[in-house]
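thought: fold this chain, then report.
action: predict
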Amino acid sequence: MRQTVFCVLSVIITIVLALVSLRYLTDFWLLSLVYSFQIHLGILCAIGAVVALFVKRHWYGFLMLVAAILLTLHGVIMLREFAGKPPADDTPRLFRLMSFNIENDNFENGGRIADAILASGADVVDIMEAEPVFAQLPRLSQLYPYRIGCSASETCDTLVLSKRPFTRQEIHDIGELWKQRLVSVSIDFDGTPVDFLFPHLSKPYFDDFQSDELQDLTAFMQPHTGALVVAGDFNSSILAPTIQQFLRGTGLTTDFPEPTTWPVAAGPFGISIDHIFTRPPLLIRATSRLEDSFGSNHYGLVSDFVRQ
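observation:
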């Protein structure tokens, strides 16, 4: 019986470790979600290996344990790679950004979400799948008189609100799957012009669409050589090879550790698929997660930015 239990555990753990390890050979889109959960799967495999060793002391159990630990540690190292430089404590805040995918059928919570936006203290707000707050625009406009997106409810995906006027504002298609899911604006913060790109990417298991969208996003970034913020729902964690390639190619960084945003039911044990990135001369002082998901399947993020 003990031999059978050990063999079953070993087969399951080996399959999971093999799937995660494929990231070092291929960035195949169908495994992208598995790669995003590398740390979680590594920890689970390590626990499974310990259980297997209690069932039967065997060299293969130790091999699985070492492999699981190495995959977990490398996952943490990869997350740490894209951590931005921490600013000095006395550096004044330049602006606050809120980014939140509120889920497009979350109409019953539209009023509560609008309340959260108004109470956030954010200077700029990026709302994705924004149709549930479409009816709240009149009162949101009292604090955020400048906006782009949601000119008609049937095309209301990305809505950007600002307390300050836009010096430039554009909406672009990104990739081939969805339309008008990249909003680009520029805002002047007391003499510091900042460019913002707000993408909403497709899910990683929709063939190569997300990879194509990241290539388009990289191309959209090229003319923006100054202060830049890229924020939105990427539908993948930084551990996904496509996201890593994008960050290495663009020099973007983020807060570390990133707050987890999905799935909501997992709370702090989920993964970060919503991101707020930047690059010098901007630094992120801190990124926090909204305490309430307000009925969405994502948590929202709030980041404070300073100029180095």
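thought: worth noting. The radius of gyration is 21 Å.
final: tokens above.
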